[in-house]
Amino acid sequence: MPENIHNLTLKQMLALGIGTTIHFSLLNGYTDDPDHDFMSSLSAFEIATTTGYTQGYAAGVAGRTLDGVVFAQDNPNNWATMDATDEVIANIGVPAGVAIGHLALWLPGTSYADARVIRAYPAAQTLNGGNLTLQFNAVGLVKLTG
């Protein structure tokens, strides 16, 4: 019979498996597919480098990272979570009317070929050429239950 994993172990599994260096990419026209394990499957949908936003491995630089990544355990609910500070990209240089459909979170590699995707979250927003705010769920970005 399956047994539950203790909450501290769940938290450590998240922290050790993911770590605190997490990159993100803004996607346009992407359809979520959990079989897309590496960013090479998503890169064709990433918006181009512009003011305030650097595309994934453009010019050998691994794009933007999440700030304030933390891991927590929730004993009453028997789960562990990963969360990050909400992101604000000031004066993003994307032309007005460009739709962002997904926010991809990924772990760095040497290129998109080995950069592992954590998740591509639906993030429907139409840019207006001003600030882009990515406000994350209060429960966290990732939840692991035992």
Quick tags:
3-stranded antiparallel beta sheet, 146 residues, 1 helix, mainly beta, 8% helix, globular, 4-stranded antiparallel beta sheet
Walkthrough of the structure:
The chain is mostly beta strands. The chain has one helix spanning 7-18; strands spanning 23-27, 64-65, 70-74, 79-83, 87-89, 99-106, 117-126, 132-134, 142-145. It has one domain (7-145). The strands form three sheets. Strands 2-1-6-7 form a four-stranded antiparallel β-sheet, with no helix packed on it. Strands 3-4-9 form a three-stranded antiparallel β-sheet, covered by helices on one side. It is globular and about 50 Å long. The mean pLDDT is 83.
SSE class: mainly beta
Poorly predicted ranges (pLDDT <50, ≥5 residues)?
Answer: none
Give the biggest beta sheet. 4 strands, antiparallel
Task: Quickly count the helices.
Answer: 1
Along the chain, the helix and strand elements come as HEEEEEEEEE
| Percent of sequence in beta strands | 25-35%
Radius of gyration: 16 Å
Write down the oligomeric state: single chain
The total strand number stands at 9
Helix content: under 10%
Q: Could you say how many structural domains there are in total?
A: 1
Distance between the termini: 13 Å
Q: How would you describe the shape?
A: globular
- How is the largest sheet built, in terms of strand order? 2-1-6-7
Write the layout of secondary structure elements.
Elements (H helix, E strand, L loop, with lengths): L6 H12 L4 E5 L36 E2 L4 E5 L4 E5 L3 E3 L9 E8 L10 E10 L5 E3 L7 E4 L1
Antiparallel strand pairs: 1-2, 1-6, 3-4, 4-9, 5-8, 6-7
